[in-house]
Amino acid sequence: LRPPAVSSKVFVQRDYGSGTISKFQTKFPSELESRLDKQQFDETIQTLNNLYAEAEKLGGKSYLEGCLACLTAYTIFLCMETHYEKVLKKISRYIKDQNEKIYAPRGLLLTDPIERGLRVVEITIYEDRSIGSGR
Amino acid sequence: MITRKVRKWEKLPGKNTFCCDGRVMMARQKGVFYLTLFLIVGTCSLFFAFECPYLAVHLSPAIPVFAALLFLFVIAMLLRTSFSDPGVLPRALPEEATFIEMEIEAANGNVPAGQRPPPRIRNVQINNQIVKLKYCYTCKIFRPPRASHCSICDNCVDRFDHHCPWVGNCVGKRNYRYFYMFTLSLSLLTIYIFTFDIVHVSTVLEVLVCFFTLWSVVGLTGFHTYLISLNQTTNEDIKGSWSGKNRVQNPYSHKNIFKNCCEVLCGPAFPSVLDRRGLMQEDSPASSTSAAPSSSSSSNPMSQTMKTTAPLIPNEHTPDDAKPSIAASAEKSDSPKEEDPPTPQPWVALIKLI
């Protein structure tokens, strides 16, 4: 049984309306209409956006991390994980989870944006081989 | 066909050099960086060798100790700036590039034959300001706001400030604060050494180096302090992007000096999106299409017009913007797909039989 072939790929672009923060557009791509509910897609993207916002939040915690790091001439980053890196791991787990629960059963695959330079959310659409799957 | 595992940095396009198996990333020309190191280490060595014995005995032993700590901090900041990824944006893989091209074509509609297609620009509204995102013909992406393409390193860099030959690297989002800390601490070190040099002159060379360094480095620190307080990059300052004419204002500024400083200097530490030390499959001998997707069409010399060093008319399309689109569209039609599998040579098949 050969693995399913890639039918096409959709690239969800960045939303720069709020500035340079990492945020993706929630516009539902037409290519996914036959495979996915708009609401599910929306929820995935919104959660991702919230997670990135958490990583890039400017606040007491990030300032403290920054100042402390500066005092140690940034050597502290050699042994400590940054807040951003912790959230990136969270994002990675979330995407894996979404793929397992929602996207893979529909013949789709979400690619972690970090693997595309945080530029796009790449969604791979595999050819639909289920017989009589008319959705 | 032999498949072997390589580190991703070995296949990264662009003109960077990598050391320590991808841990260190610098520009190709490192001569001036070595000079910087030599000047700092050399001058401080003279200071520690000739001044410090006198100062420790006649004034206080704390003076050389503080100088040593400051010196170590300066070197740490310099190396951090020089060796880290400034915030390079990876180039678009073929499918992403095609997807974007299709979107552009759909947006442009039908261009009559012989006419230039319109320049590739995307308008985005940020904080009630229209910001134009330019398309990079080398990296095949629409550059995020504040990103720029460095022609020396041949990469798009996020929040591009400038390419600094003294540190042998670009200064961008990820290493700007280290660069600033370097210039600030170097200013302090120079002032510190210069003060004691005047108090007790031992080497004229030291005094001279300090004097000239003082004016340039302190001036540079002052300039960058000004930029940080306004949340601007050197690139934007040179281009006059937010110079205030036509009621154009910096949409990224918090309009509060303290907040701007906090964001730039104490903001979150952005991770590198170039997975330099990740492993990937490399198929030898022929196909390197999967590894370097844009290398075949990135030799377009016109793409170098997306330079940052030349001051451009702010937010206007220079005539050069239109030229690459003709060249690029011609090249595009020549190489529609870059996923052709390599055709095995008959003799390879023969060898496998033996």
UniProtKB/TrEMBL annotation, chain A:
<protein>
    <recommendedName>
        <fullName>Golgin subfamily A member 7</fullName>
    </recommendedName>
</protein>
<keyword id="KW-0472">Membrane</keyword>
<dbReference type="GO" id="GO:0005795">
    <property type="term" value="C:Golgi stack"/>
</dbReference>
<dbReference type="GO" id="GO:0006612">
    <property type="term" value="P:protein targeting to membrane"/>
</dbReference>
<dbReference type="GO" id="GO:0043001">
    <property type="term" value="P:Golgi to plasma membrane protein transport"/>
</dbReference>
<feature type="domain" description="Golgin subfamily A member 7/ERF4">
    <location>
        <begin position="10"/>
        <end position="122"/>
    </location>
</feature>
<dbReference type="Pfam" id="PF10256">
    <property type="entry name" value="Erf4"/>
</dbReference>
<dbReference type="InterPro" id="IPR051371">
    <property type="entry name" value="Ras_palmitoyltransferase"/>
</dbReference>
<dbReference type="GO" id="GO:0002178">
    <property type="term" value="C:palmitoyltransferase complex"/>
</dbReference>
<dbReference type="InterPro" id="IPR019383">
    <property type="entry name" value="Golgin_A_7/ERF4"/>
</dbReference>
<dbReference type="GO" id="GO:0000139">
    <property type="term" value="C:Golgi membrane"/>
</dbReference>
<comment type="function">
    <text>May be involved in protein transport from Golgi to cell surface. The ZDHHC9-GOLGA7 complex is a palmitoyltransferase specific for HRAS and NRAS.</text>
</comment>
<keyword id="KW-0333">Golgi apparatus</keyword>
<keyword id="KW-0449">Lipoprotein</keyword>
<keyword id="KW-0564">Palmitate</keyword>
<comment type="similarity">
    <text>Belongs to the ERF4 family.</text>
</comment>
Automatic annotation (TrEMBL), chain B:
<dbReference type="GO" id="GO:0000139">
    <property type="term" value="C:Golgi membrane"/>
</dbReference>
<feature type="compositionally biased region" description="Basic and acidic residues">
    <location>
        <begin position="331"/>
        <end position="340"/>
    </location>
</feature>
<keyword id="KW-0808">Transferase</keyword>
<keyword id="KW-0449">Lipoprotein</keyword>
<keyword id="KW-0812">Transmembrane</keyword>
<dbReference type="GO" id="GO:0006612">
    <property type="term" value="P:protein targeting to membrane"/>
</dbReference>
<comment type="similarity">
    <text>Belongs to the DHHC palmitoyltransferase family. ERF2/ZDHHC9 subfamily.</text>
</comment>
<keyword id="KW-0256">Endoplasmic reticulum</keyword>
<keyword id="KW-0333">Golgi apparatus</keyword>
<keyword id="KW-0564">Palmitate</keyword>
<feature type="transmembrane region" description="Helical">
    <location>
        <begin position="32"/>
        <end position="50"/>
    </location>
</feature>
<dbReference type="Pfam" id="PF01529">
    <property type="entry name" value="DHHC"/>
</dbReference>
<feature type="transmembrane region" description="Helical">
    <location>
        <begin position="178"/>
        <end position="199"/>
    </location>
</feature>
<dbReference type="GO" id="GO:0005789">
    <property type="term" value="C:endoplasmic reticulum membrane"/>
</dbReference>
<feature type="compositionally biased region" description="Low complexity">
    <location>
        <begin position="284"/>
        <end position="303"/>
    </location>
</feature>
<keyword id="KW-0012">Acyltransferase</keyword>
<protein>
    <recommendedName>
        <fullName>Palmitoyltransferase</fullName>
        <ecNumber>2.3.1.225</ecNumber>
    </recommendedName>
</protein>
<keyword id="KW-0472">Membrane</keyword>
<feature type="domain" description="Palmitoyltransferase DHHC">
    <location>
        <begin position="132"/>
        <end position="203"/>
    </location>
</feature>
<feature type="region of interest" description="Disordered">
    <location>
        <begin position="281"/>
        <end position="354"/>
    </location>
</feature>
<dbReference type="GO" id="GO:0019706">
    <property type="term" value="F:protein-cysteine S-palmitoyltransferase activity"/>
</dbReference>
<feature type="transmembrane region" description="Helical">
    <location>
        <begin position="205"/>
        <end position="229"/>
    </location>
</feature>
